[in-house]
Amino acid sequence: PVTSWTNCTDMAPARTGSSVAYTSPNMNGFTATVAMVVDGGNRNTSVGDDGVDSAHISLRYSNGPLSVALAAMDFDSQVTTASDMWAVSAGYNFGNFYVGAQYEDRDASPDGATADDADYVGIGAKAFFGNNTVFVSYGDRDSDTNSEDRKAHV
Question: What is the spatial distance between Cα 5 and Cα 152, in angstroms, rounded to a whole number?
């Protein structure tokens, strides 16, 4: 499913504790999820301490061979600054072959302070051979500071 590409390391906090989430029932392939993390870890009180470290909302359509997802996250628990992120992903299953892609955008400082904003792009494919699966993926992170640019592949 396409959700495997919307959970990139940079899209989620390093540890998710003391969280609560709700996923709606599936309505003709559409689901929505909302979540909050309220564990108090690394909370940055200078960005407003409402007790919520991060909030997440996602919408997903998965029906037949097509999967599409949109997600947004708001982090107030970063040690030095707040951070907003959003992602969109899509995947298509051709029977014995699956292909998917994602795009993520991080605004590391929505309050206007200087920080490291970044964009992420990932593509991947799977081929199914009975009980075996061959998987290949490529990801690219383009940061405002070149020292943080990364490329990854499997």
Answer: 13
Q: In sequence order, what are the residues at sequence separation of 6 or more whose Cβ sits closer than 8 angstroms to the Cβ of residue 5? A: 89, 91, 100, 101, 102, 122, 124
pLDDT digits (tens, 9 = 90+) for 68-126: 999 998 876 544 455 788 999 999 999 999 999 999 988 876 555 555 677 889 999 99
Separation of alpha carbons 58 and 124, rounded Å: 21
Residue type, 122: G
Of 120, 132, 122, 127, nearest to 90 (Cα)? 122
3-state secondary structure of 45: helix
Spatial contact of 18 and 82, defined as CB atoms under 8 Å apart: no
Measured between alpha carbons, how far is 97 from 93 in angstroms, rounded to an integer? 6
